[in-house]
Write a structure and sequence with these properties.
The chain is mostly helical. The chain contains 15 helices and 2 strands. Helix content is about 60%, strand content about 5%. Strands 1-2 form a two-stranded antiparallel ribbon.
């Protein structure tokens, strides 16, 4: 009896210490967390909600997300898409390849005049000339006229501060006039690799910052601009043929004859180029104007 009573007392104590059924209402949810130490001691199971974090703990656990924008918009760089940059560059190219044409009705009239002059007179003569004179002979005649105009290129090289070009033109003139038999051959280029500098006074004015002003289509001379027309007159002062024709009447007749020969010879070497331009263009007048403008701009940039 003495042994049974302590045992019953221990059993009753265990029943009292054992956890009972959960009596919480269905609407109340309780979080149960079991730590490793609670598994060893079942009585340490917590049925209450966790305590709120302190201010310091909440600041430490808070991980802020950086915003995707900045309030300081002055430091924000201006972003430009590739499409916008391409459109702007195309606009610059379009504006760079155009020229004012306030005299378009008159220029078109001269364009049609030059067109008929080419097909009715210049092309037939150049075609017959090409059939008679072999290509080597026509190239030699072109070399001769190019050598005569060396002072034009030499002076313009000096005006453009291209002193190396001026030196090359001087050496070319000496070599081609002597070894090249009055310029009919070009040993300076073929043997000594000294290239010609194709410059003129209109190009010089462009390098000095003078714009083309507006487009001109001159009779016989063809496409030009106000700047290049002034440059053409300026080059006449550097051309030895001008002074030869001024002092001798016979030389003046010869001068006009050589000018015609030069044009016919040049046309014979470029037959078909103008015809291809007309075939490929919807408006040959505009195509010739834009091609000439871009050609002159490229020469100025060199």
């Amino acid at each position: 009896m003495k042994v049974v009573f302590p045992v019953c007392f221990l059993l009753a104590l265990c029943l009292v210490m054992a956890p009972g059924p959960c009596t919480a209402s269905p609407s109340t949810e309780a979080s149960v967390s079991i730590s490793p130490s609670d598994k060893a001691n079942p009585t340490a199971i917590a049925t209450e909600s966790p305590e709120p974090l302190s201010e310091a703990e909440s600041l430490e656990s808070f991980d802020p997300v950086e915003p995707s924008f900045s309030n300081d918009r002055e430091d924000e760089p201006i972003q430009t898409s590739d499409t916008d940059m391409a459109s702007e560059s195309s606009k610059l190219r379009e504006s760079a390849g155009t020229i004012a044409d306030p005299l378009e009705p008159l220029n078109r009239a001269f364009f049609h005049f030059n067109d008929k002059l080419y097909f009715w007179i210049l092309k037939p003569i150049a075609t017959g000339y090409k059939a008679v004179i072999p290509e080597d002979g026509r190239i030699g005649i072109g070399n001769f006229f190019s050598n005569v105009k060396t002072p034009v290129r030499l002076v313009n090289c000096l005006l453009q501060a291209k002193f190396k070009g001026a030196g090359n033109e001087t050496v070319r003139f000496v070599l081609n006039t002597t070894i090249g038999v009055a310029g009919f051959f070009d040993p300076a280029k073929k043997t000594f690799k000294i290239e010609k500098h194709d410059v003129d006074f209109g190009q010089t004015l462009g390098i000095w910052g003078i714009g083309p002003a507006f487009y001109l289509n001159l009779p016989i001379l063809g496409p030009s601009s106000l700047r290049d027309a002034v440059g053409y007159v300026g080059d006449l002062f550097f051309d030895p043929q001008t002074y030869l024709a001024y002092y001798f009447v016979v030389a003046e007749i010869v001068n006009y004859g050589t000018w015609v020969l030069d044009k016919v010879n040049e046309t014979s070497l470029t037959l078909g180029e103008y015809e291809n331009l007309k075939k490929a263009a919807l408006d040959p007048y505009i195509a010739l104007r834009e091609a000439y403008t871009q050609y002159r701009q490229n020469k100025i940039k060199k």
